[in-house]
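FORM 7B: Structural annotation worksheet

SECTION A. Query
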Amino acid sequence: MTEQQGEQLTLAEREQLEHELAELEGPKRQAIVEAIAVARGHGDLSENFEYHSAKNEQGLLERRITILRSRLQHAQVIDEEAAAASGVVTVGSRVELRREDGEVMTVEISSVGGVSPESPVGRAVLGKKAGDEIVVEAPRGTWRATVVSIGR
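SECTION B. Predicted structure
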């Protein structure tokens, strides 16, 4: 997936990212600003661990904010009704797989808290229908499975 193409999100996933961004830009950012101010009050900044730690945390926070803003700016919200009606695996689908060794597993295709569409499993199942066989090229080896069911 290219950066310009953007990632596909369900409406709920987009709202989850927006909520996280609001939390980081509001209370979290304010807490770090206060921590830096308190640490400055302890004197010499060159040997002040609390100050350097707070500044490092501020840098990490600002980077996460930048990443979230970019993801939201480039994201495409999928039409979940159309995706469900299509009968194929899309972002937001819950997929039940039966591996060739008999193990049954359920995965949710999501770049927010699920199996990423860019992962080996995600790439293998996207666009598949119930009954289709997939081949997953994973770092620990290749394995096969059958798509048992697709839900939302």
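SECTION C. Observations
The two ends are 23 Å apart (CA to CA). The chain is about 45% helix and 20% strand.

SECTION D. Sign-off
Analyst initials: ____
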